[in-house]
TrEMBL record:
Keywords: Lyase, Signal. This is Alginate lyase domain-containing protein. Residues 1-30 form the signal peptide. Residues 125-345 form the Alginate lyase domain. GO terms for cellular component: periplasmic space. It comes from Streptomyces niveus (Streptomyces spheroides). GO terms for molecular function: lyase activity. Pfam families: Alginate_lyase.
């Protein structure tokens, strides 16, 4: 799958960042107002609503120690679907103990990965570091922990920058996997002498590229939010955590539509989307807005899936950290999964949705959201459940999603 193509808009990103100090847009509850009324003005959230945890939980990026313990027990017992998911992971190239890291001082990524100077190597080494960290926790074979450390040490000793038009997205994708690996190794393995250097890499090379969001593209900004919140947790950086949550709270209502938003989808403050025509163009020329529609649905389902996956990852990390964002974003997320998985399951696409045709596929991105919203919170999610179970074991998209049937299928922790 290929990276998105919208270039970064640094001026707009900076303007957006300036707005976020005081005002955040909270999603309205279903039924707040008739669908033909305009969306309400952004509401100010209390300081308590955006405060990072006083004490961070570790491991706590995407998956917690109780979740890991649940998975380990299921795999040891040979229970399904976890054993099949574990076998899938262990049979992948990312679990190979003979993998040789390929770090670069400068990773250069253009649109559609052209040029691709270290882009694939960086993303895949980051996924491999997370994969081997997971393997270590489940099988307690030191070789996997040492391989994860080898990969993280190689990059932290080398990389200095990301360049070209896809730099923010590349940083976000690799930056989503690195802290997940680092959290498991630092807090469950006996020794990692260079963990401080790795943290410095995250702070100096990754965080500055993503902390202000994209200011434009939906899946870009949500992926940047995912990486930023993971890095903030690993660094125990409360300021970065709060800033990321603020941007996320604006972007999610602007990425997924609910009828309670009014006749038109919400927009991010300062986005410059002021008219219906501008909003329709931004939503890839979709002029009929229906419950659960995503801003990139009519672009393709792959990029839509990137955004939905990132939303679920941010929410899952926030839940682990004691600041649960699922109550705020869950209604949008479950309706978005319900709409898109309905057509992924084979129902004909109506003519008023993207001209009656949807491109590509969501990919292996539904386990986290379905487990949180369907299993833990008890929402009926028939379409999503069918899609999730049919796709098991859900593996990796080779970008930033990996092994979520293993880590999150029916996980009550």
């Amino acid at each position: 799958m290929r990276p998105g193509v919208i270039p970064r808009v640094l001026g707009l990103s900076a303007a957006l960042a300036g707005l976020l100090g005081a005002v955040f847009m909270a999603p309205a509850a279903a039924g707040d107002r008739p669908a033909d009324r305009p969306a309400a003005a952004p509401r100010t959230l209390s300081a308590e609503a955006v405060a990072a945890p006083a004490n961070f939980t570790h491991p706590g990026v995407g998956v917690s120690r109780p979740q890991l313990d649940f998975v380990r027990g299921k795999v040891q017992a040979g229970a399904q679907p976890w054993k099949a998911a574990y076998d899938q992971m262990m049979g992948s190239k990312y679990a190979s103990l003979s993998r040789v890291p390929k770090p670069r001082a400068v990773v250069e990524c253009g649109s559609y990965s052209n040029p691709n100077n270290g882009c694939t190597d960086e993303r895949e080494d980051a996924i491999a570091a997370y994969t081997t960290a997971l393997a270590w926790y489940i099988n307690r074979d030191d070789r996997y922990a040492k391989k994860s450390i080898e990969l993280m040490d190689a990059w932290s000793n080398t990389i200095r920058d990301h360049t070209n038009s896809n730099a923010p997205l590349q940083t976000a994708w690799a930056g989503s996997s690195w802290p997940k690996a680092a959290e498991i190794i630092k807090y469950t393995y006996t020794s990692w002498p260079n963990s401080g250097r790795f943290a410095t890499m995250l702070r100096n090379v990754y965080l500055p590229e993503i902390i202000n969001g994209s200011g434009s593209n939906g899946n870009w900004e949500l992926s940047m939010n995912e990486a930023a919140i993971g890095i903030a947790v690993h660094l125990e950086d409360r300021g970065a955590y709060d800033k990321t949550v603020g941007i996320f709270r604006n972007r999610v209502p602007a990425f997924i539509y609910l009828p309670s938003d009014g006749a038109l989808p919400r927009t991010v403050p300062g986005s410059g989307l002021d008219t219906r025509d501008e909003i329709v163009r931004y939503w890839h020329n979709q002029s009929t807005f229906m419950q659960g529609l995503a801003q990139e649905t009519c672009r393709d389902l792959t990029h839509t899936g990137y955004g939905l996956s990132a939303i679920s990852h941010v929410a899952e990390t926030s839940r682990i950290q004691g600041q649960d964002l699922y109550p705020e974003v869950g209604d949008r997320l479950r309706h978005a999964f319900g709409l898109h998985t309905k057509y992924q399951n084979g129902e004909p696409v109506p003519g008023n949705l993207c001209g009656g045709s949807l491109k590509d596929n969501l990919g292996p991105i539904s386990e986290v959201a379905f487990n949180a919203l369907g299993n833990r919170l008890g929402n009926a999610m028939t379409n999503t459940q069918q899609y999730t179970e049919r796709m098991r074991p859900q593996g990796t998209n080779n970008l930033f999603v990996a092994w979520e049937t293993l880590t999150h299928a029916n996980n009550p922790a």
